[in-house]
Amino acid sequence: MSRKNSRPARSAEAQRQDDLASSSLRPAHLLALQAFDVAVRLGSFKEAAGMLNLSASAVSHRIRKLEAHLGVALFHRTHRAVRPTRAGEKLATATGRAFAALARAESSVEAAGHRRLRLKVLPQFASAWLIPRLSSFLTQHSEIDLSIETSNRNVDFDTEMFDAGISFGPDKVEGVVAHHLMDVRTVPVGAPSLARRLNLRTAADLSRAVLIHVTTFPAAWPLWFKHAGETVPPPTRTISVDSFVAALQAAERGAGIALALEPFLGESERRGMIRRLLPVGHMTGSYWLVHPPGSQRNRALQTFKKWLLAELAKSD
Q1: In the chain, where are the structural domains located?
Q2: Which secondary structure element, helix H or strand E, spans residue 246, and what is its range?
């Protein structure tokens, strides 16, 4: 029997089902799915309308038609916002993956001419390392358009339309191609004037200071104190911000003591804005360049990766 004829019968059946599914998707259904996907991500028909250059009533109409077609409610609607039902959450997982795959396919087509690269980058890496060096990349590679979005959350290629991301974590990310960029330690820092006033000698002395917490990494201070062999001091007065970038800025202005990420302190230290207060540093994880396994053919990504690794080698 030939290799061609030995294929399981279910393959032909699966292909028939795919053909039926694709033929049943009318243009109106695809537009409705697009409106649904954007509304889920933004949590608002009004904001989705703005992104799609439609009226809010047009977005609502498309989604109601989709609900009628599927026979289920996709959203819980309130006066100011919408949130997906259980059926909506299930559909959103599928549409997120589908539109992300379409975006990556578009990027691979763009690679034949003027290329575009979509990156999702964590704020600290973007502001302290990547953006100050971008001019050299753009000068060397004027044929590549960069689109950079910063977020405190690591990229999710199943649901987001990015070609690559700079992510953070203690271990290599599973399910993607990951290149180690740098290790990160947290170290306590403060303005020189505050450091002189507090005269800190040990981790226990931090009980006299106002500690600046990062809400997106609530375990940062507890882990640092554990590494230093001390218990977390009872809270007297604290400040909470949403990123290590904001925490460093607050510390530079004398608001309190922050945990800063090493190796991103160089510029602030050179300018005399900040001082390391204690020699204890806690290894918290690493930055990784991540991208889907199928992106090796994306020439813009390969060019960026080569430049990024070369720049990191210079700064070692």
Answers
A1: 4-84, 115-316
A2: helix 244-252
